[in-house]
Structure formats: C-alpha cells, structure tokens
Amino acid sequence: MKKYESYYTYIIASFIGMLLVGTAVYAHKSAQYSETAGAKSESGESNTERLAPNFTLDRLGGGTIELASYRGQKPVVLDFFATWCPNCRRDMPHLNTLYEKYNDRVEIIGIDLQEQAPLVQKFATELGLTFPIALDTKGQVAQQYGVRYTNFHVLINREGNVVGSVPGDITEADIVNLIGQ
User: Fold this and answer.
1) How far from 17 is each of 11, 31, 114, 120, 135, CA to CA, in Å?
2) Over 50: is that where the pLDDT of 70 sits?
3) What is the pLDDT of residues 127-142, one digit of tens each?
4) What per-residue confidence (pLDDT) applies to 160?
5) What is the phi/psi pair of residue 17, to 5°?
6) In a 3-state reduction of DSSP, which class is residue 123?
7) Phi, psi angles (nearest 5°) of residue 111
8) 50-180 in CATH: which number?
9) Of the four listed, 48, 62, 94, 124, which is most buried by Cβ atoms within 10 Å?
10) Is the pLDDT of residue 168 over 60?
11) Could you tell me which residues come within 8 angstroms of residue 99 by beta carbon, excluding any fewer than 6 positions away?
C-alpha cells in the first residue's frame, strides 16, 4: 500500500509542478505582450507604442475590412467578441451607443472570434449593432493581437499604433482619451 501512496504523491507533485511552470510561462508571455502592445499601465499611462498589425477580414454583410485603411484617418477600437459571451452581449449595446456618438472621430470594429456569419448576423441584428463587424473565422487576428478571451478591446491611435487595451467593458472615457491622443 505504501508503494502506491508514494506513487500517487509523485504524480500529484509532478502535476502541481507542471501547473506552476505553465502558469509562470503564461504570465511571462502576457507581460511580454503588454510591453510590446503598449498596454496601459496601472497608472493609465501608455507603455512603448508599436504599429498595429494590419489585417484584412471579411466584413459581416459583405466586403472586407482592412485596418491599415484607417491609418492617418482616425483612431480605432478593436472589440474582440463572441456571440456566446454574456459579457459581450451586455457590453456591445453600450459600445454601439458610443459608436453612434463618436463615429465621426473614432472607428469601432467588432471582431468576432471564430464563428460563422449567419450566427453573428443574428446576434448583431438582435442587439441592433451598427458598427462594422469583421469575421476572424480562423482566429488569426486574435492571435496577432495576443487576445486570449472575449470582451477585449485594443486601442489604436490615428497613426496606427497600439496605445492600450481594455479587458472587459469599455467606457466613454476610454473612447474620449483615445480621440485625444
């Protein structure tokens, strides 16, 4: 019996060790992305800026959206979402209100994470969304931006640099601050 107890203890200790190493690697990668993406620090100030990775995605309803086309025109908010996300369902009508108020000064682009167009169209119609929605059906854009969960916003200034991110619900102050950059 003691033989099996030590065997199980070894397995549990090994599992805990792997879990700790995995957590440390994940935290290190997250910190690297925050530094390179120019994410806001605790004080709200932007770290080093970098040019936002360009992409061209199919637009819900037809056509395509290319991020680079906004460079030099106006700031952009990328809203990474999914139809199954309850926080997205709660936040997106508020985001749509902000879009309708500020769309002459900032572009808001919803980026759906790996879902099919009919499902996304039903969701957008139910919520009455008017801002453009792009379909990241393979998750490649989310990967470029280091997005690991839904209801995540990337803030891009007029020059096309990533200047911050907002995990969770975005506020009007976030939009106004971005416009002022």
Assistant:
1) 10, 21, 33, 41, 38
2) yes
3) 999 999 999 999 999 9
4) 96
5) -60, -45
6) helix
7) -120, 105
8) 3.40.30.10
9) 124
10) yes
11) 108, 130, 131
